[in-house]
Amino acid sequence: MDAIDLNIYELNYVPPKQELWKGRASALELNVQYWCQQIECHNLQNDLTAVEKPHFAIIGYACDEGVRRNQGRVGAKNGPEAIRKQLSRFAFNHPPKRIIDFGNIIPVEEDMESCQAALARVTEQLLSQNIFPIVLGGGHDVAFGHFMGIERAIQKRGIHSIGIINFDAHFDLRPSKEQPNSGTPFYQILNGYKNSVAYFVLGIQTAANSPQLFEIAKQKGVNYLLNNVCEPSSIMEVKNQLDAFIQQHDYLYVTIDLDGFSSAYAPGVSASSPLGFSPSFVFDLL
Length: 286
What we know:
Elements: E1 13-14, H1 35-38, E2 39-41, E3 56-61, H2 65-69, H3 79-88, E4 99-105, H4 112-128, E5 132-137, H5 142-155, E6 162-167, H6 185-192, E7 197-204, H7 211-219, E8 223-226, H8 235-246, E9 251-256, H9 279-285
Parallel strand pairs: 2-4, 3-4, 3-5, 6-7, 6-9, 7-8
Antiparallel strand pairs: 1-4
């Protein structure tokens, strides 16, 4: 695979840690049994020309500066490593796809914007090589950097439309009056890429979104479903609406905010609520 050029964003990069990928040992003749045996770790700053191109790339966005700016409970910067540790122990029951962990993008001091720019560059270059990036957050300000990289890679192929599907309790459509934050990414996207993107949110909670945000969603033509519809009993209705949305677009960007889940499943998020959806609901839709 071609080397990834981080250019001016090298300070925002931390190589992967192989020690995070630990799990149950199994006999060599059994081949791969667990995720920790399947994952390869490579440094983006090294010469990658001799590395066989992976199907999937894992990138961490270890930043919660946007959450801090949004007056939320910080801690999401530890998310990428926590997810890796948990994932490493899972049984690997998938086709033999090559998956490389490329480490984390981090902020320098409180510079969230350079962190987003670095993530966008890595995402763009991976997609340009037909490598599927899976980005682990981090605050939901990850979405702006992630989307920028996707959009740049896609537009090299011509003009296309992108449908954003977000599993979330919040619109994240707050106007960024001073500094952008974890509550502004989709406002930034819809303002910056008006003609090539549409937005669908599943799990919106009325108690978590002000009347202003509902009005902005209306003005921007945002599709959304309230959390009381996002139940297994309504799954066919939800699928029908999603299908109609998907048919209108050439590409999809899917993002999941853990605070969309009920606090029974995700108690450690910045804005937890017992009224969120269940993992089985999201798995079914994915």
